[in-house]
Amino acid sequence: MSNALNDEDREEQTATGGVDTDAGGVTTSGESEEEVHDEWTDYEFDGEAKLSVTDLDVWYGDDHALKGVSMDIPENSVTALIGPSGCGKSTFLRCLNRMNDRIKAARIDGSVELEGTEIYDANANLVELRKRVGMVFQSPNPFPKSIRENISYGPRKHGDIEKGLLARLFGRDDTDEEADLVERSLKQAALWEEVSDRLDDNALGLSGGQQQRLCIARCLAVDPEVILMDEPASALDPIATSKIEDLVETLAEEYTVVIVTHNMQQAARISDQTAVFLTGGELVEFDDTDKIFENPESQRVEDYITGKFG
Ligand SMILES: Nc1ncnc2c1ncn2[C@@H]1O[C@H](COP(=O)(O)OP(=O)(O)OP(=O)(O)O)[C@@H](O)[C@H]1O
Ligand SMILES: [Mg+2]
């Protein structure tokens, strides 16, 4: 964590009023003695919650990276996660499909339910979970294979398509199904027009923006319900970024999208609701995006959004 205080130090400093603050009672990293009110994160919405997170804590060794985060994420919408570097956005996102399980130092406590079923249950099927809750990372990471194989790899692994010699021998050749799936996924990711005549070319020959849309197509190919995106456009130029933004808005008609972004305008443009995390791993406010950007409850959120720190 960017600040090296442990909980005891922090409690002691708060008790003695010892936190250094600049004008407005907020430090440059957004810490203050402002109390977080439960109702600031108690977001009420119509429709169902796709994901329900309750009292989620994450530690990396002794670092307490996320503190008691609770939030309900509505289905078929875009939820933006914003906040200064190191506040735990990626950590939170990775908790939603148990990607943090892969980090040895990480310890997680709390509950995450996907449509009412606990994903941290000891019997949870992780392959199935990550099929239902897909992820797109900050840097595009296509496999060093053809464009076609990048798309069909996941469905083949899950046994949804079978092709090749063995499949032909057993009379289960799904080559046509594969072609349909590749076309559909690439169209959904707004990439088909650009690559339809070179599906057998290596995916690493695509531009950065095309690679990122390929990764989104790869994620869509396994038919997920939730798509987690960690700053998917931060390495892209403005034109490629706006393609990804348009795409995210379209995806929300069918999928539940949770996106981390450092770009406030992007969050304001594409999301339906916004969650603001601040330094120390706290979720401070979660509400309709318009409300967060126009009239937040928390002074620290207002300071962050207006660029006073972070
Ligand atoms: N694999 C890890 N091992 C140890 N500590 C980690 C690990 N990943 C994250 N952390 C720590 O947890 C805290 C939250 O990190 P996280 O990456 O979730 O922040 P973030 O909000 O995504 O930041 P950024 O905006 O810079 O991506 C930081 O203090 C970070 O150093
Ligand atoms: Mg991050």
UniProtKB/TrEMBL annotation:
<feature type="compositionally biased region" description="Low complexity">
    <location>
        <begin position="14"/>
        <end position="30"/>
    </location>
</feature>
<dbReference type="InterPro" id="IPR003593">
    <property type="entry name" value="AAA+_ATPase"/>
</dbReference>
<keyword id="KW-0067">ATP-binding</keyword>
<feature type="compositionally biased region" description="Acidic residues">
    <location>
        <begin position="1"/>
        <end position="11"/>
    </location>
</feature>
<keyword id="KW-0813">Transport</keyword>
<keyword id="KW-0472">Membrane</keyword>
<dbReference type="InterPro" id="IPR003439">
    <property type="entry name" value="ABC_transporter-like_ATP-bd"/>
</dbReference>
<protein>
    <submittedName>
        <fullName>Phosphate ABC transporter ATP-binding protein PstB</fullName>
    </submittedName>
</protein>
<feature type="domain" description="ABC transporter">
    <location>
        <begin position="51"/>
        <end position="305"/>
    </location>
</feature>
<dbReference type="InterPro" id="IPR027417">
    <property type="entry name" value="P-loop_NTPase"/>
</dbReference>
<dbReference type="InterPro" id="IPR017871">
    <property type="entry name" value="ABC_transporter-like_CS"/>
</dbReference>
<feature type="region of interest" description="Disordered">
    <location>
        <begin position="1"/>
        <end position="38"/>
    </location>
</feature>
<dbReference type="Pfam" id="PF00005">
    <property type="entry name" value="ABC_tran"/>
</dbReference>
<keyword id="KW-0547">Nucleotide-binding</keyword>
<keyword id="KW-1003">Cell membrane</keyword>
<dbReference type="GO" id="GO:0005524">
    <property type="term" value="F:ATP binding"/>
</dbReference>
<dbReference type="InterPro" id="IPR005670">
    <property type="entry name" value="PstB-like"/>
</dbReference>
